[in-house]
Amino acid sequence: MELLTALTIGTLFAIGVFQLLRRNVIRSAIGLVILANAVNLFLLTTGAYLGEDPAYATYTGVGQRIADPLPQALILTAIVISMGGTAFVLAMLYIISARYQTANMDDVDNLKN
Amino acid sequence: MTIEPQLILLPLLIPLSGAGVALLLRKRRPYQAGWALGSMLLSCGVSLWLFVDVWQTGRPLVWQGGGWLAPFGITLVADILALFFVVMTQVVMVTGMVYALGSGDKAVKYPAFLVLFLTLCTGLTGALMTGDIFNMYVFAELLVISGTVLTAISDDKFGTEAAYKYFYMSLLASFLMLLGIGCLYVSYGTLNMADLSVRIQAQPDGLLLLPAIGFLLATFMIKSAVFPFHFWQPDFHAASPTAVSAMLSSVVVKLGVYGFLRMTFLLFAAQAVQMRGLLLVLGIVGILFGGLSAIGTHNVKRMLAYSTLAQIGFILVGIGWGTPLAITAALVFAFNHSLIKAAMLMLAGFVASRASIKSAAFDVVTGVGRPLPAAGLLFFIGSLALAGIPPTSGFVSKLLLFSSGIEAAAFWPLLILGLFSILTLVYTMRAFMRIWWQDPAEGISTKPTGDHLLAPILLIGLILVLGIWASPLVEAAQAVSAWVADPAAYVTAVLGN
């Protein structure tokens, strides 16, 4: 299970970074979303292997190893924030692609001079 | 008189609730303006009061959220370091608000402009005052979103492009910060900064400690545009509305400086030597790169944005030397740089608002300053301050930084620092000569109305006052420097044992 999770996170990071470096603005936005999910999965693993039982729900207190609930709260916050961020990125992409009539990042360079 | 610890919420809650009410007042512009300015002033006054109190008693004010004691709950810590930066932020943001209200920009007339300005202030204040590293991430996101929206609605037609670049970079920065937080959490099982400091000292070979340091360093470098992560900054600062770019280039970049101070003194005190070496090198490279790039620009605002890169380099050199005097110098430098850079950007925006098309490009603003001698005088004083020439406050910060360098016997960095201080004068004087000295080109005229000059007058006045009567600021910075050198006191104040 650990190996599978590690491979998944690694693959997601690889795809995310690769997409991020593409010239196409839409692809790079998708890269951001994938990267956000990779980070969230990483946060999940920080508390995943401490115990098997869910916290609070079936906790009896005797010799039981409960899972750490905090990373899930962190992920919840991170998901909400990255959702807001993604929505905002897409809104700005819409304006940019309408204004510049292109999806190629190299053509969106009017600030250089 | 003892202050209730709940009161440290005020510098956060006043701008935040002010933003909510300002949104309700969106149809009544005069009321909204008055309310927003009033909440900024009140919050600035309260943070100044808290700072003076914490300075005099020498004890930080700690608020444990919801009664959950640290390290379990979210803690807000108003120690003197955080309050120093909060006071700096709020003083500059008051003048930014004054500039925005006197500005003729279309962006300022948007109903949400002042609301976002107040949430920007909330985000920055919160990120400075929190004692919980995940909470810092949340506040930093609030700051980033407000700053980006404020830039995206800029009058500059490339505002959206600049905002997109910045947001892209800061989303990456926030991913890096989350990764760093995850690494720290998996190694040490806590998010409270005081608790982390204790546990890292007890067990300095944590499994993911080094990746965490790397991720957090990269995060703060992106936040304050340190050399290899600086490329978004000139675009972003040049394209945002003047009132906003004056804030971004002065106080928002200081979040990274604050982060470096916290990292080297509190969180990773054992690894501080290596981090200081890195910051010293990057600071010097930033000074070289920022100074040379500022000479090669065609736009006053862009020039000032590159200059920020160089000035942040000076601050990093101070942090890199790390002696008490150097930290004092870095703090005074950070404070003065905020005032100076905000004033200079406001003056650049003032000139741009009088130009035929609203732009700060040199070929548009050449000669525009001829009928505006008052702004020219202010810009000249600001240039002197940026280069560090008496009687301005810039001189005090440079003097402290150089004497700390002599104390640290770092003569090669000092030579570079000295040369590039003079270079500052070269690029600012070039802008001054083109705007206020040269004859305007054919067909270029100065508009009779534009932005109001009150905010830069206030800032330049403050710069002169702090240049002549420097002892309060220097003594405050000395107190902060003595405080950060003793992380055990911070830990005791937060964890309470």
Structural account:
The complex is a heterodimer of chains A (113) and B (497). By secondary structure, chain A is mainly α. Chain A is 65% helix and 0% strand. Chain A has helices at 2-20, 25-48, 70-100. In chain A, α1 (2-20) packs antiparallel against α2 (25-48) and α2 runs antiparallel to α3 (70-100). The longest helix of chain A has 31 residues, at 70-100. Chain B is mostly helical and 497 residues long. Chain B is built from 22 helices and 2 strands. In chain B, strands 1-2 form a two-stranded antiparallel sheet. In chain B, α6 packs antiparallel against α7 (159-188), α10 crosses α14 and α17 runs parallel beside α18 (393-407). Chain B is globular, with a radius of gyration of 21 Å. At the A-B interface, α2 and α3 of A face α6, α7 and α10 of B.
**Major sheet characteristics of chain A:** none
Beta strands of chain A, count: 0
Return the structural class of chain B: mainly alpha
Secondary-structure element series of chain A: HHH
Structural class of chain A: mainly alpha
Task: Give the helices and strands, then pairings.
The complex is a heterodimer of chains A (113) and B (497).
Chain A lengths: L1 H19 L4 H24 L21 H31 L13
Helix pairs in contact in A: 1-2, 2-3
Chain B lengths: L9 H15 L4 H29 L3 E4 L10 E4 L1 H22 L4 H4 L3 H17 L3 H20 L6 H30 L4 H10 L6 H15 L9 H7 L2 H11 L1 H14 L4 H24 L4 H22 L2 H31 L7 H4 L7 H15 L5 H15 L3 H27 L16 H15 L2 H14 L2 H9 L2
Helix pairs in contact in B: 1-2, 1-5, 2-3, 3-5, 3-11, 3-15, 3-20, 5-6, 6-7, 6-11, 7-9, 7-10, 8-22, 9-12, 10-11, 10-14, 11-15, 12-14, 13-14, 13-19, 14-15, 14-19, 15-17, 15-18, 15-20, 15-21, 17-18, 17-19, 17-20, 18-20
